Amino acid sequence: MKALRVHEPGEPGTVLRAEEVERPEPGPGRLLVRVSAAALNFPDALLCRGHYQERPPLPFTPGVEVCGEVVAVGEGVPDIPGIAVGDRVIGSPVLPHGGFAEYALMTAAEVLPAPGTLSDAQASTLFIGYQTGWFALHRRAELRAGETVLVHAAAGGVGGAAVQLAKAAGARVIGVVGGAAKTDHARALGADVVVDRHTQDFVPVVKEVTGGRGADVVFDPVGGDAFTRSTKCVAFEGRVVVVGFAGGTIPAPALNHVLLKNYSLLGLHWGLYVRRAPALVRECHEQLTDLAARGQITPVVSETLALGEVPGALQRLADGTTIGRLVVAG
Protein backbone atom coordinates (compact mmCIF):
# COMPACT_ATOMS: atom_id res chain seq x y z
CA MET A 1 0.00 0.00 0.00
CA LYS A 2 1.00 3.64 -0.35
CA ALA A 3 1.96 5.54 2.80
CA LEU A 4 3.84 8.63 3.88
CA ARG A 5 6.54 7.82 6.44
CA VAL A 6 9.00 9.68 8.63
CA HIS A 7 12.47 8.13 8.99
CA GLU A 8 14.10 10.92 11.00
CA PRO A 9 12.72 13.97 12.86
CA GLY A 10 12.49 17.23 10.97
CA GLU A 11 10.21 19.63 9.14
CA PRO A 12 7.19 17.93 7.55
CA GLY A 13 7.97 19.20 4.07
CA THR A 14 11.37 17.52 4.25
CA VAL A 15 10.97 14.29 6.21
CA LEU A 16 7.63 12.94 4.94
CA ARG A 17 8.35 10.43 2.17
CA ALA A 18 5.96 8.44 -0.03
CA GLU A 19 6.68 4.71 0.07
CA GLU A 20 5.20 1.32 -0.75
CA VAL A 21 4.79 -0.65 2.48
CA GLU A 22 3.07 -3.81 3.67
CA ARG A 23 -0.53 -3.42 4.73
CA PRO A 24 -0.73 -3.77 8.54
CA GLU A 25 -2.75 -6.56 10.16
CA PRO A 26 -5.15 -5.83 13.04
CA GLY A 27 -4.04 -7.38 16.32
CA PRO A 28 -6.26 -8.04 19.35
CA GLY A 29 -8.75 -5.22 19.93
CA ARG A 30 -7.77 -3.44 16.70
CA LEU A 31 -9.48 -2.63 13.41
CA LEU A 32 -8.00 -2.27 9.95
CA VAL A 33 -9.58 0.70 8.20
CA ARG A 34 -9.43 1.69 4.54
CA VAL A 35 -8.77 5.42 4.81
CA SER A 36 -11.39 7.48 2.97
CA ALA A 37 -10.19 10.84 4.29
CA ALA A 38 -7.52 12.04 6.71
CA ALA A 39 -7.48 15.53 8.18
CA LEU A 40 -4.20 17.38 8.72
CA ASN A 41 -3.59 18.55 12.30
CA PHE A 42 -0.89 20.52 14.10
CA PRO A 43 0.06 17.41 16.14
CA ASP A 44 1.02 15.75 12.85
CA ALA A 45 3.65 18.45 12.34
CA LEU A 46 4.86 18.02 15.92
CA LEU A 47 5.13 14.27 15.37
CA CYS A 48 7.30 14.87 12.30
CA ARG A 49 9.54 17.18 14.32
CA GLY A 50 9.78 14.75 17.24
CA HIS A 51 8.20 17.35 19.53
CA TYR A 52 4.91 15.62 20.32
CA GLN A 53 4.21 13.97 23.68
CA GLU A 54 3.86 10.67 21.85
CA ARG A 55 6.96 9.51 19.97
CA PRO A 56 6.25 6.47 17.82
CA PRO A 57 9.12 4.25 16.71
CA LEU A 58 10.80 5.20 13.44
CA PRO A 59 9.80 4.91 10.69
CA PHE A 60 6.16 5.85 11.24
CA THR A 61 3.17 7.24 9.36
CA PRO A 62 1.52 10.32 10.91
CA GLY A 63 -2.13 11.24 10.44
CA VAL A 64 -4.05 11.41 13.72
CA GLU A 65 -7.61 11.95 12.46
CA VAL A 66 -9.40 9.86 9.84
CA CYS A 67 -12.67 8.69 8.40
CA GLY A 68 -12.62 5.23 6.87
CA GLU A 69 -14.32 1.91 6.23
CA VAL A 70 -13.66 -1.06 8.50
CA VAL A 71 -12.21 -3.89 6.38
CA ALA A 72 -10.87 -6.30 9.02
CA VAL A 73 -11.36 -6.94 12.74
CA GLY A 74 -8.79 -8.32 15.15
CA GLU A 75 -9.39 -10.85 17.91
CA GLY A 76 -11.25 -9.83 21.03
CA VAL A 77 -13.03 -6.85 19.50
CA PRO A 78 -16.22 -6.24 21.49
CA ASP A 79 -19.61 -6.16 19.77
CA ILE A 80 -20.16 -2.43 19.36
CA PRO A 81 -23.16 -1.23 17.30
CA GLY A 82 -22.00 0.52 14.13
CA ILE A 83 -18.46 -0.83 14.42
CA ALA A 84 -18.10 -3.86 12.12
CA VAL A 85 -16.68 -4.77 8.72
CA GLY A 86 -18.18 -2.43 6.15
CA ASP A 87 -19.06 0.29 8.64
CA ARG A 88 -17.91 3.89 8.24
CA VAL A 89 -16.02 5.17 11.29
CA ILE A 90 -13.97 8.10 12.54
CA GLY A 91 -11.23 8.42 15.14
CA SER A 92 -7.49 8.47 15.73
CA PRO A 93 -5.31 5.71 14.22
CA VAL A 94 -2.82 3.77 16.31
CA LEU A 95 0.71 4.93 15.54
CA PRO A 96 3.01 4.02 13.86
CA HIS A 97 0.23 3.15 11.37
CA GLY A 98 -1.35 6.60 11.00
CA GLY A 99 -3.84 8.01 8.56
CA PHE A 100 -1.57 9.35 5.79
CA ALA A 101 -1.79 5.99 4.05
CA GLU A 102 -4.27 3.82 2.19
CA TYR A 103 -4.95 1.78 5.33
CA ALA A 104 -4.64 2.51 9.05
CA LEU A 105 -4.98 0.64 12.33
CA MET A 106 -7.46 1.82 14.97
CA THR A 107 -8.47 0.74 18.47
CA ALA A 108 -11.97 -0.71 18.26
CA ALA A 109 -13.08 0.62 21.64
CA GLU A 110 -12.17 4.19 20.64
CA VAL A 111 -13.64 4.56 17.14
CA LEU A 112 -16.98 6.25 16.57
CA PRO A 113 -19.61 5.88 13.83
CA ALA A 114 -19.26 8.53 11.13
CA PRO A 115 -22.34 10.80 10.93
CA GLY A 116 -24.41 9.98 7.88
CA THR A 117 -25.08 13.65 7.16
CA LEU A 118 -21.37 14.42 6.62
CA SER A 119 -19.09 13.57 3.71
CA ASP A 120 -15.96 11.52 4.35
CA ALA A 121 -13.83 14.68 4.24
CA GLN A 122 -16.12 16.53 6.66
CA ALA A 123 -16.41 13.54 9.00
CA SER A 124 -12.62 13.19 9.16
CA THR A 125 -12.44 16.63 10.84
CA LEU A 126 -15.15 15.99 13.44
CA PHE A 127 -13.15 13.99 15.96
CA ILE A 128 -10.27 16.03 17.40
CA GLY A 129 -11.24 19.63 16.70
CA TYR A 130 -14.92 19.49 17.55
CA GLN A 131 -14.45 17.20 20.53
CA THR A 132 -11.79 19.58 21.86
CA GLY A 133 -14.08 22.56 21.35
CA TRP A 134 -17.05 20.83 22.97
CA PHE A 135 -15.13 19.68 26.05
CA ALA A 136 -13.48 23.09 26.45
CA LEU A 137 -16.67 25.10 26.18
CA HIS A 138 -19.19 22.78 27.82
CA ARG A 139 -17.34 20.43 30.15
CA ARG A 140 -14.65 22.82 31.40
CA ALA A 141 -16.03 26.36 30.96
CA GLU A 142 -19.73 25.46 31.37
CA LEU A 143 -20.66 27.97 28.70
CA ARG A 144 -24.09 29.56 28.99
CA ALA A 145 -26.28 31.11 26.30
CA GLY A 146 -25.79 34.88 26.03
CA GLU A 147 -22.16 34.83 27.18
CA THR A 148 -19.27 36.22 25.15
CA VAL A 149 -16.52 33.87 24.00
CA LEU A 150 -13.10 35.04 22.81
CA VAL A 151 -11.64 32.44 20.42
CA HIS A 152 -7.99 32.57 19.40
CA ALA A 153 -6.89 31.04 16.07
CA ALA A 154 -10.52 31.31 14.98
CA ALA A 155 -9.71 30.41 11.36
CA GLY A 156 -7.85 27.24 12.32
CA GLY A 157 -9.14 23.71 12.80
CA VAL A 158 -9.68 23.70 16.57
CA GLY A 159 -10.50 27.41 16.84
CA GLY A 160 -12.95 27.24 13.95
CA ALA A 161 -14.77 24.35 15.60
CA ALA A 162 -14.98 26.38 18.83
CA VAL A 163 -16.53 29.29 16.92
CA GLN A 164 -19.30 27.10 15.52
CA LEU A 165 -19.92 25.33 18.82
CA ALA A 166 -20.09 28.59 20.76
CA LYS A 167 -22.61 30.00 18.29
CA ALA A 168 -24.65 26.79 18.48
CA ALA A 169 -24.77 27.28 22.26
CA GLY A 170 -26.18 30.80 21.88
CA ALA A 171 -23.00 32.72 22.69
CA ARG A 172 -21.55 35.85 21.10
CA VAL A 173 -18.17 35.12 19.53
CA ILE A 174 -15.15 37.36 19.08
CA GLY A 175 -12.60 35.62 16.89
CA VAL A 176 -8.89 36.47 16.68
CA VAL A 177 -7.03 35.53 13.50
CA GLY A 178 -3.54 36.10 12.10
CA GLY A 179 -3.87 37.90 8.78
CA ALA A 180 -6.47 39.63 6.66
CA ALA A 181 -6.98 36.53 4.49
CA LYS A 182 -8.36 34.67 7.51
CA THR A 183 -10.95 37.21 8.60
CA ASP A 184 -13.60 36.25 6.03
CA HIS A 185 -13.24 32.58 6.92
CA ALA A 186 -13.79 33.26 10.64
CA ARG A 187 -16.87 35.35 9.82
CA ALA A 188 -18.22 32.58 7.59
CA LEU A 189 -17.86 30.16 10.50
CA GLY A 190 -20.12 32.43 12.53
CA ALA A 191 -17.88 34.81 14.50
CA ASP A 192 -19.77 38.01 15.30
CA VAL A 193 -16.61 40.11 15.50
CA VAL A 194 -13.23 39.24 13.97
CA VAL A 195 -9.91 40.83 14.96
CA ASP A 196 -6.76 40.55 12.84
CA ARG A 197 -4.01 40.45 15.46
CA HIS A 198 -1.51 41.68 12.88
CA THR A 199 -3.23 45.05 12.64
CA GLN A 200 -5.42 45.31 15.77
CA ASP A 201 -5.14 44.83 19.51
CA PHE A 202 -7.96 42.51 20.51
CA VAL A 203 -8.03 43.72 24.14
CA PRO A 204 -9.75 47.09 23.50
CA VAL A 205 -12.03 45.45 20.94
CA VAL A 206 -13.26 42.92 23.52
CA LYS A 207 -13.82 45.66 26.08
CA GLU A 208 -15.71 47.80 23.59
CA VAL A 209 -17.91 44.96 22.33
CA THR A 210 -18.79 43.86 25.87
CA GLY A 211 -19.34 47.36 27.28
CA GLY A 212 -16.26 47.04 29.47
CA ARG A 213 -17.23 43.71 31.03
CA GLY A 214 -14.81 41.51 29.09
CA ALA A 215 -15.08 37.99 27.69
CA ASP A 216 -16.87 35.42 29.84
CA VAL A 217 -14.89 32.58 28.26
CA VAL A 218 -11.49 32.63 26.53
CA PHE A 219 -10.66 29.67 24.28
CA ASP A 220 -6.87 29.65 23.87
CA PRO A 221 -5.04 27.07 21.74
CA VAL A 222 -2.18 29.54 21.11
CA GLY A 223 -0.55 30.44 24.43
CA GLY A 224 2.23 33.01 24.73
CA ASP A 225 1.17 36.63 24.32
CA ALA A 226 -2.36 35.57 23.32
CA PHE A 227 -2.87 34.11 26.79
CA THR A 228 -1.21 37.02 28.62
CA ARG A 229 -3.26 39.67 26.84
CA SER A 230 -6.46 37.65 27.22
CA THR A 231 -6.18 38.00 31.00
CA LYS A 232 -6.47 41.76 30.50
CA CYS A 233 -9.91 41.43 28.95
CA VAL A 234 -11.45 38.44 30.72
CA ALA A 235 -14.62 39.23 32.65
CA PHE A 236 -15.21 39.10 36.38
CA GLU A 237 -15.68 35.39 37.16
CA GLY A 238 -14.66 34.61 33.59
CA ARG A 239 -12.96 31.40 32.52
CA VAL A 240 -9.77 31.03 30.48
CA VAL A 241 -9.45 27.56 28.93
CA VAL A 242 -5.88 26.64 28.02
CA VAL A 243 -6.09 24.25 25.07
CA GLY A 244 -2.57 24.32 23.66
CA PHE A 245 0.51 26.31 22.74
CA ALA A 246 0.49 26.56 18.94
CA GLY A 247 2.33 29.88 19.26
CA GLY A 248 5.33 28.00 20.60
CA THR A 249 5.56 29.73 24.00
CA ILE A 250 4.16 28.35 27.26
CA PRO A 251 3.05 31.32 29.40
CA ALA A 252 3.76 31.70 33.12
CA PRO A 253 0.53 33.12 34.59
CA ALA A 254 0.64 35.70 37.36
CA LEU A 255 -1.52 34.03 39.99
CA ASN A 256 -1.97 37.27 41.93
CA HIS A 257 -3.78 38.59 38.83
CA VAL A 258 -6.10 35.56 38.86
CA LEU A 259 -6.95 36.41 42.47
CA LEU A 260 -7.42 40.14 41.90
CA LYS A 261 -9.79 39.69 38.93
CA ASN A 262 -11.65 36.60 40.19
CA TYR A 263 -11.29 34.55 37.00
CA SER A 264 -10.57 30.86 36.56
CA LEU A 265 -7.76 29.15 34.68
CA LEU A 266 -8.86 25.81 33.26
CA GLY A 267 -6.77 23.26 31.42
CA LEU A 268 -8.01 20.94 28.71
CA HIS A 269 -6.09 17.86 27.61
CA TRP A 270 -8.83 16.22 25.60
CA GLY A 271 -6.84 13.01 25.10
CA LEU A 272 -7.22 12.23 28.81
CA TYR A 273 -10.98 11.88 28.32
CA VAL A 274 -10.42 9.28 25.60
CA ARG A 275 -8.51 7.14 28.09
CA ARG A 276 -10.20 8.00 31.39
CA ALA A 277 -13.80 8.85 30.47
CA PRO A 278 -14.68 7.20 27.14
CA ALA A 279 -18.39 7.38 27.95
CA LEU A 280 -18.15 11.18 27.94
CA VAL A 281 -16.41 11.08 24.54
CA ARG A 282 -19.28 9.02 23.13
CA GLU A 283 -21.83 11.36 24.70
CA CYS A 284 -20.03 14.29 23.09
CA HIS A 285 -20.05 12.49 19.73
CA GLU A 286 -23.79 11.94 19.96
CA GLN A 287 -24.32 15.64 20.57
CA LEU A 288 -21.99 16.62 17.74
CA THR A 289 -23.79 14.21 15.41
CA ASP A 290 -27.11 15.79 16.36
CA LEU A 291 -25.76 19.33 15.86
CA ALA A 292 -24.45 18.33 12.42
CA ALA A 293 -27.79 16.76 11.48
CA ARG A 294 -29.57 19.99 12.43
CA GLY A 295 -27.07 22.13 10.53
CA GLN A 296 -25.83 23.95 13.63
CA ILE A 297 -22.27 22.86 12.96
CA THR A 298 -20.83 22.22 9.50
CA PRO A 299 -17.19 21.18 9.14
CA VAL A 300 -15.64 23.33 6.42
CA VAL A 301 -12.91 21.71 4.33
CA SER A 302 -10.83 24.44 2.72
CA GLU A 303 -8.49 22.19 0.72
CA THR A 304 -8.82 18.61 -0.51
CA LEU A 305 -5.43 17.04 -1.16
CA ALA A 306 -3.88 14.04 -2.85
CA LEU A 307 -1.54 11.97 -0.68
CA GLY A 308 1.53 13.34 -2.46
CA GLU A 309 0.52 16.91 -1.60
CA VAL A 310 0.55 16.29 2.15
CA PRO A 311 4.21 17.13 2.94
CA GLY A 312 3.97 20.63 1.52
CA ALA A 313 0.49 21.23 2.92
CA LEU A 314 1.47 20.04 6.41
CA GLN A 315 4.48 22.34 6.26
CA ARG A 316 2.18 25.27 5.49
CA LEU A 317 -0.04 24.27 8.41
CA ALA A 318 2.99 24.10 10.70
CA ASP A 319 4.04 27.56 9.51
CA GLY A 320 0.59 28.98 10.29
CA THR A 321 -0.28 30.01 6.73
CA THR A 322 -3.27 27.71 6.11
CA ILE A 323 -6.94 28.61 6.48
CA GLY A 324 -9.55 26.14 7.74
CA ARG A 325 -9.23 22.38 7.45
CA LEU A 326 -7.01 20.53 4.99
CA VAL A 327 -7.98 16.95 4.20
CA VAL A 328 -6.45 14.10 2.18
CA ALA A 329 -9.26 12.38 0.30
CA GLY A 330 -9.15 9.86 -2.50
TrEMBL record:
User: Which PROSITE patterns does the record match to this protein?
Assistant: QOR_ZETA_CRYSTAL
User: What organism does the UniProt record list as the source?
Assistant: Nocardiopsis ansamitocini
| Name of one Pfam family that matches | ADH_zinc_N
Matches recorded under InterPro entries: ADH-like_C, ADH-like_N, ER, GroES-like_sf, NAD(P)-bd_dom_sf, Quin_OxRdtase/zeta-crystal_CS, Zn-ADH-like_protein
User: Any idea what this protein is called?
Assistant: Oxidoreductase
Q: What is a single molecular function from GO for this protein?
A: oxidoreductase activity
| Stretches assigned to the Enoyl reductase (ER) domain | 13-328
